[in-house]
From TrEMBL:
It is found in: Cell membrane. GO terms for molecular function: potassium:chloride symporter activity. It comes from Gouania willdenowi (Blunt-snouted clingfish). Residues 59-236, 349-630 form the Amino acid permease/ SLC12A domain. Residues 875-891 have a biased composition (Basic and acidic residues). The chain crosses the membrane at residues 54-76, 88-111, 132-153, 186-205, 212-231, 351-371, 391-417, 437-455, 491-509, 515-537, 549-573. This is Solute carrier family 12 member 7-like. Its main location: membrane. Residues 900-914 have a biased composition (Polar residues). It comes from the Eukaryota. Keywords: Cell membrane, Chloride, Glycoprotein, Ion transport, Membrane, Phosphoprotein, Potassium, Potassium transport, Symport, Transmembrane, Transmembrane helix, Transport.
């Protein structure tokens, strides 16, 4: 393995990898922290046992316990009576189909790799990314927390309504106050119950887990008691009569006999029922008219399975708040007064009922399918157990719900089904009246079932919040990632208890149920979306062991979840989606960046590829043109941005739209500059928080690097069309002429590439993105038409908040032959058609005589250029040239076939010269140069004024060191004097004089009109075709921009970028 020994750190041996995988243990939440705490205390580290739970104990039973609960015992009979059997089956079918499709999608995700502790949150976040994962994870957390509220409210409702009604603190003196009294009792007792449960969870979760089987046994026994009671009704229906007045159901709480009068000792006496409807006990007392006109009858509340009552319960009986529960088959004589009925002991609707409300109330009874995946860290084989256990649990509970709906409708009379709290059967739980051997089996079983479910919610929700907090995707939740030494989430438990208290203060089970339905449906929706996205993208890592899935099923489940959200409660659905959207955007902008290989990223890549291919089909239309910027940045030695305001201008120009490529060139080779290039990328993108892409090129020289960027930056249709750079402000002071030569070559290359060019002068004085400029102007000097860039850029700038208050002014230049008035009218009309608001002014520039100042400025410019050309070589360059001449001499000597004497003489001289160069103490330097090398290879030698002796084949020059330096200085002074004499005698080029004249006059006009403007936009003249005048070109631009603060030079790309057409 010696071939790979240098790569062992990054690429381990296969044997090492397999050993790590074999020793992998999927720790439950908090186990690792518990071990670390024990280790800190000096105790021996405990050995963590491998998870040993199988499908039945680890997934099937927990799902069964979480699915079957409070709604089954407290509300299912009322839902069947209100919606009827057919619509109840539709509700059950919709909700169970939704959870089954979600379970299929969840099974595919859960079997696509190892699922650590964290369950559903882990699956969603790693499949859809941190933004969706955080949003849905928090929704799932809120759903679980409100589920705890619902279970606690169910516990208190059972306690105060069916077990110890006398324990109520608030007692209603009037019938119309009963609802408020019940709600207040629920709030008080619910808060106490929540505090007690929170203490239990805080003290020890192990007790909750140990009691889980007890609570599950209560649920199973209660269901068995229901089925036993149903079959018993075939032979011996239980005796639970319902007292009816006419066709109205009476509350059987305050009377013992369903009679108006009774015969006692042969005397007719009034009953307690008489007192409820009359103002006295006498037979001649004034009574309610409906009471007098209708008879009192007893109806068997549970006629039995073979009674045929199923046909009466097929259809729905929806109604408004306060609607009386009636049996339409019984006779009823009029005389009722709705205003007085609410004070009489009738059974009535406590809420307005309709189909969608019942869907929202019922849906929590099918939630809990994530219980198995939440225990994934405790399973022996999660990839096998989660799909099998979850789907079997849903199938089992769906069968139980469907059969219960049919059996309830077939065994119980409709009026008793619609009696939510069992007031017509002396306050018994309606489902309890059907059970065998006693109603107390259901009452006690449902009580402990709700207690257990509430404890499980208070146990699971804090751990889910802790998992989200520890992922670090939501910064403000990080405090909830801490807990006790053993990992128990103390702070998360307090937060959960606080949110749970909100649900308890709502106090109504029917109002809390739709809230948690929204959050669970949101979670299930994104589980289906995750599976569908991964399946359609065919990600290489998408290889689930569970094969019975399809993207169409996932989309159907997702659609069903969305439909159920709006069916249940459209306003709750909007609120839940708004909460999820806010969390999503918060994580996107503020949260920590995570890369989990999620499906949304893969979807984005596919969408980007498709869009890029479509963009390649045709060039963009003028109406769609916007500056796609390539920003050429300069970095300092520490890889910091020299001009960060250039990036601010970039953001302001594109107003958050369009493409931005921030580019930089590093000189060197990529192998040595790899780290610097990455640091440069980070520096460029972090400055001013620019949104876009960074492109750092490592090149042997700056010129080639910029050329490569202009040619190759971007991809496909997403290529830049505009180059933005800063004006080289120090080009005059720079000793290196490459600074301004690179600038001019960049202008030439952007022109050749048909790209627009923007050059910002004094860019450090430009506003940043936090500045707000006051009222002022953006002045456009439109000298030549280059596609309309000058018109478009101010409009784009004014879209940004920095330049929003600025007004746009357009100046154009008129020549002697132009009609200024007509030009102004035409320009105003042109701007009108362009839908641009701007002031227009035409400035007349006459061809005045060239001033002496202009002539002198041109002369100084040309003299400076000539002096730069005549500057002598530096000392190092001279020595390098001497060395090259010496090397050439040696080569020439060795190639010649010399005579013996000449060879001896030459060899002595050559050896003498080599010795003196090695010792660096030579007094004589000897050159041997062929005539051809003198003329062709070293033309500068003549300027050295060396003493030259032409021999038959060589040139023999012998200089002492003193003579060499004396001669060099003498000739340097002579050449300098000659050059100065030429400079003072030269005359400026007339073409340069005209250009300088234009620059001076235009500068005077611009400074006069626009010196106080916030920004000046000006046409940028093109560089000369001949590179010999590049220095003069820079001088012309310098004169043109003199005295102006913020200037943006604009050079069009050769195409129209603005149009008058819609």
């Amino acid at each position: 393995m010696a071939l790979f020994e240098e790569e062992m750190d990054s690429n381990p041996m296969v044997s090492s990898l397999l050993d790590k995988l074999a020793n992998y243990t999927n720790l439950t939440q908090g186990a690792q922290e518990h071990e670390e705490a024990d280790d800190d205390e000096g105790q021996k580290k405990k050995t963590v046992k491998s998870p040993q739970m199988g499908t039945f104990m680890g997934v099937y039973l927990p799902c069964l316990q979480n699915i079957l609960g409070v709604i089954l015992f407290l509300r299912l009979t009322w839902i069947v009576g209100t919606a009827g059997i057919l619509e109840s089956l539709a509700i059950v079918g919709l909700c169970c189909s939704c959870t089954m499709l979600t379970a299929i999608s969840m099974s595919a995700i859960a079997t696509n790799g190892v699922v650590p502790a964290g369950g559903s949150y882990y699956m969603i976040s790693r499949s859809l990314g941190p933004e969706f994962g955080g949003a849905v994870g928090l929704c799932f957390y809120l759903g679980t927390t409100f589920a705890g509220s619902m279970y606690i409210l169910g516990t208190i409702e059972i306690l105060l309504t069916y077990i110890v009604p006398k324990a109520a603190i608030f007692v209603a003196e009037r019938k119309e106050d009963e609802v408020n009294a019940l709600l207040n009792n629920m709030r008080v007792y619910g808060t106490c119950c929540l505090a007690l449960m929170a203490v239990v969870v805080f003290v020890g979760v192990r007790y909750v887990n140990k009691l889980a089987l007890v609570f599950l046994a209560c649920v199973i026994l209660s269901i068995l008691a229901i089925y036993a009671g149903v079959f018993k009704t075939i032979f011996e229906p239980p005796d639970f009569p319902v007292c009816m007045l006419g066709n109205r159901t009476l509350q059987n709480n305050n009377f013992d006999k369903c009679l108006k009068t009774d015969i006692v000792d042969n005397l007719t006496v009034t009953t307690r029922l008489w007192k409820l409807f009359c103002d006295g006990t006498e037979t001649n007392a004034t009574c309610n008219e409906y009471f007098l006109n209708n008879n009192v009858t007893l109806v068997q509340g549970i006629p039995g399975l073979t009674s045929g009552v199923i046909s009466e319960n097929m259809w729905s009986q929806y109604g408004p708040l306060g609607m009386l529960v009636e049996n339409q088959k019984l006779e009823s004589v009029g005389g009722s007064d709705p205003a007085q009925d609410i004070y009489l002991p009738y059974v009535a609707n406590d809420i307005t009922t309709f189909f969608t409300l019942l869907v929202g109330i019922y849906f929590p009874s099918v939630t809990g399918i994530m219980a198995g995946s939440n225990r994934s860290g405790d399973l022996r084989d999660a990839q096998k157990s989660i799909p099998v256990g979850t789907i079997l649990a849903i199938a089992t509970t769906s069968f139980i719900y469907v059969t219960c709906v049919v059996l309830f409708g077939a065994c119980i009379d409709g009026v008793l089904l619609r009696d939510k709290f069992g007031d017509s059967v002396k306050g018994n739980l309606v489902i309890g009246t059907l059970s065998w051997p006693s109603p107390w089996v259901i009452v006690i079983g449902s009580f402990f079932s709700c207690c257990g479910a509430g404890l499980q919610s208070l146990t699971g929700a804090p751990r889910l919040l802790q998992a989200i907090a520890r992922d670090g995707i939501v910064p403000f939740l990080q405090v909830f990632g801490h807990g006790k030494a053993n990992g128990e989430p103390t702070w998360a438990l307090l937060m959960t208890a606080g949110i749970c208290e909100i649900g308890i203060l709502i106090a109504s089970l029917d109002s809390v149920a739709p809230i948690l339905s929204m959050f669970f449906l949101m979670c299930y929706l994104f589980v289906n979306l995750a599976c569908a996205v991964q399946t359609l993208l065919r990600t290489p890592n998408w290889r689930p062991r569970f094969k019975f899935y399809h993207w169409a099923l996932s989309f159907l489940g997702m659609s069903l979840c969305l439909a159920l959200m709006f069916i249940s409660s459209w306003y709750y659905a909007i609120v839940a989606m708004a909460i999820a959207s806010c969390i999503y955007k918060y994580i996107e902008y503020r949260g920590a960046e995570k890369e989990w290989g999620d499906g949304i990223r893969g979807l984005s890549l596919n969408a980007a590829r498709y869009a890029l291919i479509r963009l390649e089909e045709a060039p963009p239309h003028t109406k769609n043109w916007r500056p796609q910027l390539l920003v050429l940045l300069n970095l300092d030695s520490d890889q910091g941005v020299k001009h960060p305001r250039l990036l601010s201008l970039t953001t302001q120009l594109k107003a958050g739209k369009g493409l931005t490529i921030v580019a930089n060139v590093l000189e060197g080779t990529y192998l040595t500059k790899d780290t610097d290039s990455k640091k440069a990328e980070q520096s460029a993108m972090s400055a001013e928080r620019t949104k876009g892409f960074c492109h750092v090129v490592v090149s042997s020289n700056l010129r080639d690097g910029v050329s490569h960027l202009i040619q190759s930056a971007g991809l496909g249709g997403m290529k830049h069309n505009t180059v933005l750079m800063a004006w080289p402000g120090t080009w005059k002071q720079s000793n290196d002429p490459q600074s301004w030569k690179n600038f001019i070559e960049t202008i030439r290359e952007t022109t050749a590439a048909h790209q627009a060019l923007l050059v910002a002068k004094n860019v450090d004085s430009f506003p940043n993105n936090q500045d707000r400029l006051g009222e002022g102007t953006i002045d456009v000097w439109w000298v030549v038409h280059d596609g309309g860039m000058l018109m478009l850029l101010p409009f784009l700038l004014r879209q940004h908040k920095v330049w929003k208050k600025c007004k746009m002014r357009i100046f154009t230049v008129a020549q002697m032959d132009d009609n200024s008035i007509q030009m102004k009218k035409d320009l105003q009309m042109f701007l009108y058609h362009l839908r641009l608001d701007a002031e227009v002014e035409v400035v007349e520039m006459h061809d005045n005589d060239i001033s002496a100042f202009t002539y002198e400025k041109t002369l100084v410019m040309e003299q400076r250029s000539q002096m730069l050309k005549q500057m002598q070589l530096s000392r190092t360059e001279r020595e390098r040239e001497i060395q090259s001449i010496t090397d050439e001499s040696r080569n020439s000597i060795r190639r010649k076939n010399q005579t013996a004497d000449e060879s001896s003489n030459l060899s002595q001289q050559s050896s003498q010269m080599e010795d003196t160069q090695e010792d660096e103490v030579a007094d004589i330097v000897i050159f041997f140069i062929t005539p051809s090398s003198l003329s062709s290879r070293n033309p500068r030698l003549s300027s050295q004024n060396c003493t030259i002796f032409f021999g038959p084949e060589h040139v023999h020059m012998t200089w002492t060191k003193d003579k060499f330096f004396t001669e060099r200085n003498r000739n340097r002074d002579f050449n300098t004097n000659m050059a100065m004499r030429d400079l003072f005698n030269m005359k400026p080029n007339q073409s340069n004089v005209r250009r300088m004249h234009t620059a001076v006059k235009l500068n005077e006009v611009v400074v006069n009109k626009s010196q106080g403007a916030h920004l000046v936009l000006l046409n940028m003249p093109g560089p000369p075709r001949s590179r010999g005048g590049d220095e003069n070109y820079m001088e012309f631009l310098e004169v043109l921009l003199e005295g102006l603060n913020r200037v943006l030079l604009v050079r069009g790309g050769g195409r129209e970028v603005i149009t008058i057409y819609s």
